[in-house]
Amino acid sequence: MGSNTDIVFLNGEYMRMHEAKISPMDRGFLFGDGIYEMVPSYSGKLVGFALHIKRMQQGLATIGIQLSKSDKYWRDIAENLTAKNGNGNLGVYLHVSRGADVKRFHAFPDKVTPTIFAFVYEIPTEPAADKTLTKQFKANSAEDHRWKHCDIKSTSLLGNVMHFQSGQESGVDETILYNAQNELTEASSCNVFIVKGTSVLTPPLDKQLLPGITRLMLIDILRQEPTLTIEEQVVTMDEVRNADELWVTSSSKEIVPVVELDGKPIGNGKVGDIWQLAQTLYSKNKFNY
Length: 289
Ligand code: PMP
What we know:
The chain is an alpha+beta fold. Helix 5 crosses helix 7 (about 275-285). The chain is about 25% helix and about 30% strand. Strand 7, helix 4 and strand 8 form a beta-alpha-beta unit. It starts with 6 loop residues before the first strand and ends with a helix. It has helices at about 25-30, 50-60, 70-85, 160-170, 215-225, 235-240, 275-285, and strands at about 5-10, 15, 35-40, 45, 90-95, 115-120, 135-145, 175-180, 185, 190-195, 200, 230, 245-250, 255-260, 265. The strands form 2 sheets. Strands 7, 8, 9, 10, 11, 12, 13, 14 and 15 form a 9-stranded mixed sheet that branches. A 6-stranded antiparallel sheet has the order 2-1-6-5-3-4. Bound molecules: 4'-deoxy-4'-aminopyridoxal-5'-phosphate (PMP).
């Protein structure tokens, strides 16, 4: 029995999920040697598609996977998969691994064909810019124990998985991460923003965090809002704890207010007005990217 989203794409062909077979010698399986993307699609309309593909192409180039596929190639896969799977609220997952070798050897093999896998899965309906309807997160915090290339959207996600799992085991929704200098990096599966007064702040892009597409779009959208200032700057954990509002962002969640961190309220412990404005503007503009 398949699910409602049973049609997948593997190496040039569409098939049922159970028909998709990948070699156990695939370097994605053995080493987590690959790059992935997740693009949201609502009723067949993709959000930020070109930006996601650009990030994926950059990631592939950074790790030396040679694959020259056009933006159209990826768009066709995404549109075919959403259509074949019912055009609902879907996350389009795209995955490229370096491919299957004949031996397990760390160095990149000379001749290997990258494995291309894509599937879709159901995501929640489009978030509403409504304080009473929105998800509200509780988070904990932890020192970031991941590697020094968090700017690459690598399929090697064990560090993220372990941080996320520790949050789950503590009964929270996300884990906010900081470096050895007590500076905010990101969360285990999201970027992070804080609000103080009318200033919206988020850490600058470097190797400590993923260049999130939601982050990029939100910064661009908020820069056009005259009542707010938005800065990419170092944010300390003290500033996070004393913020008026705390948000996490990702493609499937958009902007989620975090009302409690490590058991203490953020601001007045309620969803904030600037969140409401930001999510309203994001909802209005997100299909323009
Ligand atoms: N940081 C991490 C570690 C992530 O895994 C993600 C995506 N889930 C994000 C940030 C947000 O990225 P995007 O807005 O592109 O989904």
